[in-house]
Amino acid sequence: MAPTPRSRADMVAVLSTEFPALDAETVAHAVDHAVHVAQQLNGGSEDLVWVRAGVLARDHLDVALHRARRGLELPPGAPLAV
Question: What is the chain's Cα-based Rg?
Answer without folding.
Answer: 12
